[in-house]
Structure formats: structure tokens, C-alpha cells
UniProtKB/TrEMBL annotation, chain A:
GO terms for molecular function: ATP binding. Belongs to the ABC transporter superfamily. The keyword Chloroplast does not apply. This is Lipopolysaccharide transport system ATP-binding protein. The lineage of its organism: Bacteria, Pseudomonadati, Bacteroidota, Flavobacteriia, Flavobacteriales. CDD domains: ABC_KpsT_Wzt. It holds the Pfam family ABC_tran.
Automatic annotation (TrEMBL), chain B:
This is Transport permease protein. It comes from Wenyingzhuangia heitensis. Residues 49-275 form the ABC transmembrane type-2 domain. Keywords: Cell inner membrane, Cell membrane, Membrane, Transmembrane, Transmembrane helix, Transport. It comes from the Bacteria. The lineage of its organism: Bacteria, Pseudomonadati, Bacteroidota, Flavobacteriia, Flavobacteriales. Belongs to the ABC-2 integral membrane protein family. Its main location: membrane.
Length: 419, 283
């Protein structure tokens, strides 16, 4: 039986103008207006380049999305994946009617509710209960609908005790719980969800993902889910769309989509910063062996490998550094925080930071390094895709095949004795 | 079978000009009242005098106007006590002004909400107009108190039968304020210059809106051109006429003001609708 198409995206494109708006804008506006009067097409829609943030472009106009086409069937959970800047957020904004497309159309057979953020419109001076009503109404529920579900919402949020206290007294975690609880009881035909699940503690994330699965499985609702977290996408979605530089490059089964995405988004093993005027920044990130020679991946398990950062620091007051190793499913594996005695406290400009990777506990697979330089309230330099490397598992792992559970693998040896 | 079934809605780049979807706005009516509630509940949180500020502002303004214009500059207000004359003007003017300034930065102030969720954007400025109506109600109440006080103490004040048209005056002010506010807020998304214009333009507008000066004064000095084409001046003069029985009302003024208000309101909706679709890209 052929399933019903609930959402149809046809040739959606979105153009953005780069740079700042100023006096120059008005001449373009006048040009546009003049073209419109003469019944001609917008002259600036003809120009524009593919959106690749790392390359320098010629035109002031870029296409954040270009000719996007896909269809969604009723009851389907569609995952939209792509690296930063691929156009995921723009697509979500158009789907949720926050902004209009430049060309093309989206046809829908159901009401769309979008969750690009939880807790939109929360007012810190109002109580939890009042905020439930306000936030629910913003998301498109009527007062009657909220009234009918208010007890469930409060219970799901786990904030009964605080429900008549202004939300400014809440911890940030509680605010998120309350906000998600409201969103969880939305009943649209199509739910559009951004990476809102990235917030909150682990227990809550589990609850949130469970709720999303309920929405699609038992209620048969359609969900469009955008995330960086490949394991969440894999567990939730049935089909995947891969975006790259504003174009759909793959549509199909979710497993295949993730595979495609990972294969085509290999990041380099050696990073050299572009010239930039950031106060504090990474100059280089690379891997070395114990003799300080650069090494290539794949690396062997239990090989001695060092992760090196060269940092240029012009303002060290309060400067913090942190790096985390991620799996190819975008799950954090290990963090390497600065301890108390480690600090940027000397008056030198360039630092070299080096740490040994615990390769003996890494399972075979791809890893990448995320790092940031920040101080409280400000991020100087950060990226989620600096360098990556591949670890080849040893015979222990090969013997047991893919079936090893856990994120990391044991390094200690078993003591086997006769008794 | 798919082809035959109608699409519920379609998202396209272009909007129809008068695409104010009344049905949709109606569906979101609860949101309108929740915004009103939010505004009212949170405005004076953590202040000592709280809602008393609603009263202090018009009272003090009227006192100062009375001192400056009537006691020092000796401007005659006919048989009406100058304080009541000013209070009537200030109360009406405040409603118009609050509607205008409150709606003129709709897009800028709510960009964090507008950037995340869709709902008919017009709900936001409409909620401002409604919550200002509550504020107006309180201020009108204090006006009535003084009104009674002056009547008891022997002033000759004759409200006339046209007082029943006062709700129309309110609607006119709301349409003017909302219409202008929507036009300005739409233009501010791209060109910020206008927000500067509003803050001091409103101040200047007050002086040619007959808030503290009677029309007769302009007549005496042959300056009626300065107020004749200002719909707000007509509104305030008219409201004083119906409440206090003193004022110059012309047929031209009434028709002109009505037409002007409706036009500004419709034009405001048109501009607002055109902007709401993609303002988030330019703001």
C-alpha cells in the first residue's frame, strides 16, 4: 500500500546577503524595487554562490540552500544530518515558517509545530505554571488543550515542588525540564525538532528521546529531527537526508545516510589555523609520537601517541582550555581538563600543550578532537571538527568482532590462576 | 489518490498583500491574552509603588502642564479647571503614545521569540494595544475621580450626549497607534534610523496634538495649519469636547481622522505582513 505523503519540499532555495547592512543596502533595495516595477525578476537572485564558509567567495550573496527536494510520509521519522553550515538550521527555519524561502515551495497536509529551542518566551518573573501556559500557547496550543494536560506536563517535568515559584529561581536544568515537558505534550501532525536534546542531564535526555520515540511509534506522528548526534539519529529515525553546502546529497535509509555522511566528512589529521585576529587562538593541532615526530593515522591500539596544541594567547586573564575526544557517532568519549596547577600563567605568547592519548582504552574506529579556548562568558576559539584519527583495534577486539560493549575498552589484564 | 487530496497549506516565497489570516489569528487568541497577562503581571515586579505608577505619571504630567501652561503662560482653558483640562488630554494622549511606542519595536524586541517559533506575528502588537487598554482604564478611572471632585466643588462641566461615541475614539487611537507602530517596526528591521525618530518625534508630536493647548489658542494665532492635518489633535480635541463640553469640533476633522486612521491601520497591516515573512534575515 502506498503511504500518504504528508510533506513535500519542492525546489526550496534560500539566499543570504553577507556582510553588514548599511548605506549600501539601500541601493540594492532600490534596484530590486525597480526590477519589480518593470515586472522583472529580482536581479540578485541570479547571482550567489554555494555556501562554503571556509572558502573566500566573490559574491556578496550566498545560497544557504539550493534546490532542496524531498518528501516525507505520514508517520515517518526523518533525520536531517550534515556538518555545521550545511543548511540544516536554515531548512528548519523555513519549515517552521520563521523565515520564508527565496524560491520554491513546501506543501503540507498537517499542522507543523517546531521546536527549534525549548522554553521560547519563558519569562523569568512568572511562575512555572504561568510559563507553561504562555510557552504552550506560543507553540500553538490553546488554553483548553493546556488545561487538559497541565497535570501530566507538571508530572513529566518533575518540578511539582517549584511549580508556583517564578522560573528565575529555577536552576537551568529545571527550566529546561519544564520547557521540554511543555513541548512533549504538543500534538501537531508534524513535529520539527532541532538539537534541543543536547541539553539537560543524561537521565533527562533518555526521557526526552523516549518521548520522541513514543510520539512517532504509538501516536503515528511525523517527526523531522536534526542532530549532530549520530547515535540519537540512528536510534530515532527511519530515513535520513544528508545536506552538504546547502544541497541534498543523499536520501535514504538512515543507516546508509549516516554511513554516507561519515565517509564524506573526514576531517584532516593536522590542523593549521588560518590567519585570524582572535585574541586567543589555536595555531596548530597535531599528533606526534614519543620522539615528537608527526605521525599519520591509523594508529595502533596501545601505541604511544601525543596530542599537541600550539596556542597563541594574548590575554591570559581567566583563560581556560579544554579538549574532548569524540567518537564518530558524536558521543564524547574522554575529556582532558586542565587541573588546578595547570594554567596559562606565564607572560609568554605562545604555548605548546601536549598530552598523551590513552590509546590503550580506545576501541578501533574513528575519533575526532574538539577543543576550545574560553573564559567565563566568552569563547575565544572553538571548533568541533579540528582533527580526526583512526585507531586500529588489536586482536582482542577482532576476536570478539563488533560485539564489544561500552565506549572504551579495558586496559588491565585478567589474572587467570588454577585453584 | 495523493494528487486529489488538498494540501492543508503551502509555504512559498511571496505573500498575498492582504494575507491577514483572521482565522489563524482567532486560533491564537489565547496567546494574545497570555501576552497581555504577561505584560501586566511582570511590568511592575520588584517596584515599591507597583501599579501606582500608572497613576503617578499622568497626574504629575498634568500638574506640571497646569503650572507651566496655565499658571505661568496664562493660557485660558475656558470654563474648565486647567488641571482637569490637562488630565483629559494626557489620559487620551497616553493611550495613543503607548500604543505607538509599544508596537514600534515589535520585531526588534521579540526577535528571539520570532526567530524560533511561528505564530501570527500580529498577535504581538495587538497584545500591546490590549494591555495598554487596561492601563488606560485605570488612568481613566482616576480621571473620573477628579471629574466628580470638580463637579462637587462647583465647576461648570457639561459632558454631552456624544460621550457615547468615546469607544470609537479609542478604536481610532488604537488603529492609529497600531498602524503607525507596525509601519515603523517593519522599517526598523532594516533601517534602524527610524527608532531614533520615534523617540523624539513623539515628544514633538505632543505639542501639536492639543494635549495641553486648546484649539482656540491656535485659532487666535492663525496657526491652525499646524494642527488641522494632525489626526491625533482632532482625536484629543474631540475627546475633551465629549467629556468636558469644551472644544472645537469640525465635520472635516471627524471624517478626516476616521479615514486617516483606517488607512494607516490597513497600510500598517500590509507593510507588517510583507515584513514578517523574512525580517529575521535582515534584523
Amino acid at each position: 500500500m502506498k503511504k500518504e505523503i504528508i510533506l513535500k519540499v519542492e525546489n526550496i532555495s534560500k539566499q543570504y546577503r553577507l556582510g553588514t547592512l548599511g548605506t549600501g543596502t539601500i541601493s540594492h533595495d532600490l534596484n530590486r524595487w525597480w526590477a519589480q516595477i518593470r515586472g522583472k525578476e529580482d536581479p540578485y537572485l541570479k547571482v550567489g554562490e554555494t555556501n562554503d564558509r571556509s572558502k573566500k567567495g566573490e559574491s556578496e550573496y550566498v545560497w544557504a540552500l539550493k534546490d532542496i527536494n524531498f518528501e516525507v510520509e505520514r508517520g515517518e521519522v526523518l533525520g536531517i544530518i550534515g556538518k555545521n553550515g550545511a543548511g540544516k538550521s536554515t531548512l528548519l527555519k523555513i519549515l517552521s515558517k520563521v523565515t520564508g524561502p527565496s524560491t520554491g515551495s513546501i506543501k503540507s497536509r498537517g499542522r507543523i509545530a517546531s521546536l527549534l529551542e525549548v522554553g521560547t518566551g519563558f519569562h523569568p518573573e512568572m511562575t512555572g505554571r504561568e510559563n507553561i501556559f504562555l510557552n504552550g500557547a506560543i507553540l500553538g496550543m490553546t488554553k483548553k488543550e493546556i488545561n487538559a494536560k497541565i497535570d501530566e506536563i507538571i508530572e513529566f517535568s518533575g518540578c511539582e515542588r517549584y511549580i508556583d515559584t517564578p522560573t528565575k529561581r529555577y536552576s537551568s536544568g529545571m527550566t529546561v525540564r519544564l520547557a521540554f515537558a511543555v513541548a512533549a505534550f504538543l500534538e501537531p501532525d508534524i513535529l520539527v525538532v532541532d538539537e534541543v536534546l543536547a541539553v539537560g542531564d543524561a537521565e533527562f535526555q533518555k526521557k526526552a528521546i523516549g518521548k520522541m520515540q513514543d510520539i512517532s511509534n504509538t501516536d503515528g506522528r511525523t517527526v523531522l529531527f536534526v542532530s549532530h548526534n549520530m547515535s540519537a539519529v540512528k536510534s530515532l529515525c527511519t530515513r535520513g537526508v544528508v545536506l552538504n553546502s546547502g544541497k541534498v546529497v543523499f536520501t535514504g535509509n538512515v543507516g546508509k545516510a549516516i554511513e554516507y555522511y561519515l565517509k564524506n566528512n573526514k576531517v584532516p589529521q593536522f590542523y593549521v589555523a588560518e590567519r585570524s585576529s582572535k585574541t586567543n587562538k589555536f595555531n596548530k593541532i597535531y599528533l606526534t609520537d614519543e620522539m615528537s615526530n608527526n605521525i599519520d593515522t591509523p594508529i595502533q591500539r596501545k601505541q604511544k601517541v601525543f596530542l599537541n596544541f600550539e596556542v597563541n594567547a594574548n590575554d591570559i586573564s581567566g583563560l581556560r582550555f579544554g579538549t574532548t575526544l569524540f567518537s564518530n557517532m558524536n558521543e564524547p568519549i574522554i575529556s582532558f581538563p586542565f587541573s588546578e596547577k595547570e594554567n596559562f600563567n606565564e607572560l609568554i605568547l605562545n604555548y605548546h600543550l601536549k598530552i598523551q592519548l590513552p590509546t590503550s582504552i580506545l576501541k578501533g574506529g574513528d575519533y575526532f578532537v574538539e577543543a576550545a579556548l574560553w573564559k567565563v562568558g566568552q569563547i575565544y576559539d572553538q571548533s568541533d571538527e579540528y582533527i580526526s584519527f583512526n585507531v586500529i583495534g588489536d586482536s582482542t577486539q577482532e576476536l570478539s568482532g563488533e560485539g564489544i560493549k561500552g565506549v572504551v575498552i579495558n586496559n588491565e589484564e585478567w589474572i587467570v590462576k588454577d585453584i | 489518490m495523493d494528487k486529489n487530496k488538498e494540501w492543508l497549506f503551502e509555504i512559498t516565497p511571496k505573500n498575498n498583500l492582504f494575507d491577514l489570516n483572521i482565522k489563524e489569528v482567532w486560533r491564537y487568541r489565547d496567546l494574545l491574552f497570555l501576552f497581555v497577562k504577561r505584560d501586566v503581571v511582570t511590568l511592575y515586579k520588584q517596584t515599591i509603588l507597583g501599579p501606582l505608577w500608572y497613576l503617578i505619571q499622568p497626574l504629575f504630567t498634568s500638574i506640571v502642564f497646569t503650572l507651566v501652561f496655565n499658571k505661568i503662560a496664562n493660557i485660558s482653558t475656558g470654563g474648565i479647571p486647567p488641571f482637569l483640562f490637562n488630565l483629559a488630554g494626557v489620559t487620551s494622549w497616553n493611550y495613543f503614545r503607548d500604543c505607538l511606542t509599544g508596537t514600534s519595536d515589535t520585531f526588534k524586541q521579540n526577535q528571539s521569540i520570532f526567530g524560533k517559533v511561528y505564530f501570527p506575528r500580529i498577535i504581538m502588537p495587538m497584545s500591546v494595544v490590549v494591555s495598554n487598554l487596561l492601563k488606560f482604564g485605570i488612568q481613566f478611572g482616576i480621571f473620573i475621580c477628579f471629574y466628580i471632585y470638580f463637579v462637587i466643588s462647583g465647576s461648570i462641566i457639561k459632558p454631552n450626549i456624544y460621550l457615547i461615541t468615546y469607544p470609537i475614539v479609542l478604536v481610532c487611537m488604537a488603529m492609529l497607534g497600531l498602524g503607525l507602530g507596525m509601519i515603523i517596526s517593519s522599517m526598523v528591521t532594516k533601517y534602524r534610523d527610524l527608532s531614533f525618530l520615534v523617540s523624539f518625534g513623539v515628544q514633538l508630536l505632543m505639542y501639536v496634538s492639543l494635549v495641553s493647548l486648546p484649539y482656540s489658542l491656535f485659532e487666535k494665532n492663525n496657526l491652525t495649519w499646524a494642527v488641522d492635518y494632525n489626526p491625533v489633535a482632532h482625536i484629543i480635541e474631540y475627546s475633551r469636547f465629549v467629556m468636558l463640553g469644551e472644544g472645537t469640533v469640525s465635520q472635516f476633522g471627524i471624517i478626516y481622522t476616521l479615514l486617516f486612521s483606517v488607512f494607516v491601520f490597513l497600510f500598517g497591516i500590509l507593510v507588517f505582513n510583507k515584513t514578517e515573512k523574512s525580517f529575521i534575515d535582515t534584523i
